[in-house]
């Protein structure tokens, strides 16, 4: 039984492997050329971060060890302050880590695995131009521009935030099948290289230069370099992309806000003007399926901004969940399989999309705010002393496989607990007193139990 998977980025090949292991024949269609042959994607991709949800999917397919060899473990954030000093904020208290990896490297691993798998056929240069769900047809265009009509269903669309599936319409009134809400963030980004300089930048930390409305983030690579991503507003007063029109403008920004890293970026001006300004999108789609004929998965269903590092992990978790749905229903019962997948995942993905939008404020502003840092210290102490009864938001999202909707609700209740504790006079000195401990015990009863943690 053949399935058509559209999109050979990251989710498509991984999903194809899960399906092939269940005895399905998969045709993986990709409009671009093979990215392993044309790997120069400079300026077009922020480094990716892998966390528990992503590693769970890779481990299930036996790919984790290979991917770890291409990634860098990160144990926290190294904050670079305006005065040239730095501080370190660990991700957890038990050596928890996320991993930084270049998109091209991860894409190559999953494509190699899919290509080697029995039952998976990858066709590059085959762009899906149109889908007709009523006639069960899709129109493909090859690299030479020749178009042809082929059988479509069942189809799984993994072709990203601008999925061809979003344009599907149905007779008799040519109604859109999907309601698509697309928001373009006011913030965009530029990729800027930070070459390896011995002894300058800590290797196992995410580097942050938070400056309020804008932030520079350095993602470590295995060769010791950093992949820099400069996030700025598209419009508005200096600094914004609209106000950075000359090398002198860029120099003024870096000398003012990023003076400590500027000497280590010899090609910053070339990179800034050669690389495109990336746009960041949040995409919500409803529904995610058309009967048993077409299903959206990954960014096609729920694209999110990258600030929480969950786009990849969420997409890979989609694959794990969908594979489980295949296991629970008879072969070929696409309505049941697709329906259960949407029912299990949509609320979770809506929740994490909202959390990702909020997280930019933490990276660009809050990490240098004393009040925020005080609240974080309360969270971490609660986590240390009451492990199992609560967990900070970032830890729940990153280091567990708790459903995102449960994470969202637990975090809301935990905020209320921290608010109460932050208002106690001399809390740090009184932490171990019976009165404060009794207050904490009473507040924690409102949190409820954590379930399904990895």
Describe the protein.
With 454 residues, the chain is α+β, with helices and mostly antiparallel strands. The protein folds into 3 domains: 2-75 and 100-182 and 281-359, FAD/NAD(P)-binding domain; 185-279; 369-444, no CATH class. The protein has 14 helices and 21 strands. A 7-stranded mixed β-sheet has the order 6-5-16-17-18-15-19. Strands 8-2-1-12-21-20 form a 6-stranded mixed β-sheet. It has a 3-stranded antiparallel β-sheet with strand order 3-7-4. α2 (52-60) packs across α8 (311-328), α9 (334-364) runs parallel beside α12 and α10 (370-385) packs across α12 (404-422). The longest helix has 31 residues, at 334-364. It starts with a strand and ends in a 10-residue tail after the last helix.
In short:
This protein has three domains: 2-75 and 100-182 and 281-359, FAD/NAD(P)-binding domain; 185-279; 369-444, no CATH class. 37% of the residues lie in helices and 24% in strands. The protein contains 14 helices and 21 strands.
Q: Any descriptors?
A:
454 residues, alpha+beta, FAD/NAD(P)-binding domain, 3 domains, six-stranded mixed beta sheet, 14 helices, 21 strands, 37% helix, globular
SSE layout and pairing:
Layout: E1 2-6, H1 11-20, E2 25-30, E3 48-50, H2 52-60, H3 64-68, E4 72-74, E5 76-80, E6 86-90, E7 98-101, H4 103-116, E8 120-124, E9 126-132, E10 137-142, E11 147-151, E12 155-157, E13 169-170, E14 175-176, E15 179-194, E16 206-210, E17 215-220, E18 226-233, H5 247-257, H6 268-274, E19 278-286, E20 289-290, E21 294-296, H7 299-302, H8 311-328, H9 334-364, H10 370-385, H11 393-399, H12 404-422, H13 427-430, H14 434-444
Parallel strand pairs: 1-2, 1-12, 2-8, 5-16, 12-21
Antiparallel strand pairs: 3-7, 4-7, 5-6, 9-10, 10-11, 13-14, 15-18, 15-19, 16-17, 17-18, 20-21
Helix pairs in contact: 1-4, 1-8, 2-8, 8-9, 9-12, 10-12, 12-14
């Amino acid at each position: 039984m053949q399935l058509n998977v559209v999109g050979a980025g990251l989710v498509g090949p991984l999903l194809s492997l899960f399906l092939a292991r269940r005895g399905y024949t998969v045709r993986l269609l990709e409009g671009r050329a093979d990215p392993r042959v044309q790997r120069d994607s400079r300026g077009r991709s922020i480094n990716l971060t892998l966390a528990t949800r992503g590693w769970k999917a890779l481990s299930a397919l036996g790919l984790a060890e290979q991917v770890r060899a291409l990634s860098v473990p990160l144990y926290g954030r190294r904050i670079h302050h305006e005065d040239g000093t730095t501080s370190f904020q660990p991700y957890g208290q038990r050596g928890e880590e996320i991993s930084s990896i270049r998109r091209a490297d991860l894409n190559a691993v999953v494509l190699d695995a899919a290509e080697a798998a029995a039952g998976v056929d990858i066709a590059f240069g085959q762009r899906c131009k149109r889908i007709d769900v009523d006639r069960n047809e899709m129109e493909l265009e090859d690299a030479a521009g020749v178009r042809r009509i082929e059988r479509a269903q069942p189809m799984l669309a993994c072709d990203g935030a601008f999925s061809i599936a979003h344009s599907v319409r149905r007779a008799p009134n040519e109604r859109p099948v999907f309601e698509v809400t697309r928001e373009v963030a006011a913030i965009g980004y530029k990729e800027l290289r930070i070459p390896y300089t011995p002894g300058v930048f800590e290797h196992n930390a995410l580097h942050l230069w938070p400056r309020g409305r804008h932030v520079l983030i350095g993602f470590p690579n295995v060769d010791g370099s950093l992949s820099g991503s400069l996030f700025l507003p598209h419009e508005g007063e200096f600094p914004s992309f609209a106000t950075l029109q000359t090398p002198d403008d860029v120099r003024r920004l870096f000398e003012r806000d990023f003076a400590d890293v500027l000497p280590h970026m010899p090609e910053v001006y070339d990179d800034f003007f050669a690389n495109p300004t990336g746009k960041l999108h949040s995409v919500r789609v409803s529904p995610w399926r058309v009967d048993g004929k077409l299903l959206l998965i990954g960014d096609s269903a729920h694209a999110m901004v990258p600030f929480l590092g969950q786009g990849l992990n969420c997409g890979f978790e989609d694959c794990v969940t969908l594979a489980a749905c295949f296991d629970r229903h008879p072969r070929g019962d696409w309505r049941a399989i697709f329906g259960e997948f949407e029912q299990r995942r949509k609320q979770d993905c809506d929740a994490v999309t909202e959390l990702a939008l909020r997280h930019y404020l933490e990276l660009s502003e809050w990490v240098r705010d004393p009040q925020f840092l005080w609240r974080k210290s309360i969270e971490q102490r609660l986590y240390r002393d009451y492990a199992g009864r609560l967990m900070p938001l970032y830890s729940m999202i990153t280091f567990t496989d708790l459903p995102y909707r449960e994470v969202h609700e637990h975090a809301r209740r935990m905020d209320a607990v921290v608010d109460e504790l932050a208002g106690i006079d001399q809390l740090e000195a009184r932490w171990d007193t019976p009165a404060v401990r009794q207050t904490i015990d009473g507040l924690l009863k409102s949190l409820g139990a954590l379930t399904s943690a990895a």
